[in-house]
Amino acid sequence: MDFYGGPVHPTPPFNAPAARRLREALGMAPGHVAYGLAAQYGLRISAETVVAWERGIATPGERELTALAGVLWCAPGELLAAAATLREHRMTRDLTVDELARQLGMTGASYLRMEESGRWRGNEKQSAALCRALGLSAAQFLTATGRDEELAELLSSAVTTRWQAYVRPVAKVVPLDRALIQDVLEQLHTDYQALMVSTLSWSSTGQERSGSTGDAGRAFLARVVEQFWRTAGV
């Protein structure tokens, strides 16, 4: 949907099997759904199109998805696969751009620019509000706001150099209590250094540090991030 003259977005990840299950549970045929879309929402959607949605051949747009949820007596989120982007999480919660922006204390246009770019620019207070509004875990927040790579680089540097210098930068990226981040970074650094001393290498770590390239470097970054979330317990 184009709220402010911006680009038209790709449709959300539609859960075709769920749409069919919900329709059948209500004892409705595809024609009944098409009639409901027209009568209740003014959408001229054929029964054949409804069947195509349920088979994954076609995908409803944002307006169609919202209307379909109304006809099937469910929340829009029940018709979506696992959300990954900010837009997908917002739609799962059945929030418009303006509704979410108000909860974050910003204008709809400002929020929409970030949603479109996939790069979150809100402050720590707004980040916490975003997590509350969309029900995001810390890991989901990082993925949805496009900060996975940034976190990986910070953690790589923290475990291989002086971890204390990275508490504040990590806290700006991850919506977690700063004391928890400090404890986790210290533990990661201790574990990493102990392993280095005992084995002199950590899966060819000499080639896997943050400045490395290729599969080995990416694997190292992935392991550090995975260990971070495990140690943080989130």
UniProtKB/TrEMBL annotation:
<protein>
    <submittedName>
        <fullName>Helix-turn-helix transcriptional regulator</fullName>
    </submittedName>
</protein>
<dbReference type="Pfam" id="PF13560">
    <property type="entry name" value="HTH_31"/>
</dbReference>
<dbReference type="InterPro" id="IPR001387">
    <property type="entry name" value="Cro/C1-type_HTH"/>
</dbReference>
<feature type="domain" description="HTH cro/C1-type">
    <location>
        <begin position="86"/>
        <end position="141"/>
    </location>
</feature>
<dbReference type="InterPro" id="IPR010982">
    <property type="entry name" value="Lambda_DNA-bd_dom_sf"/>
</dbReference>
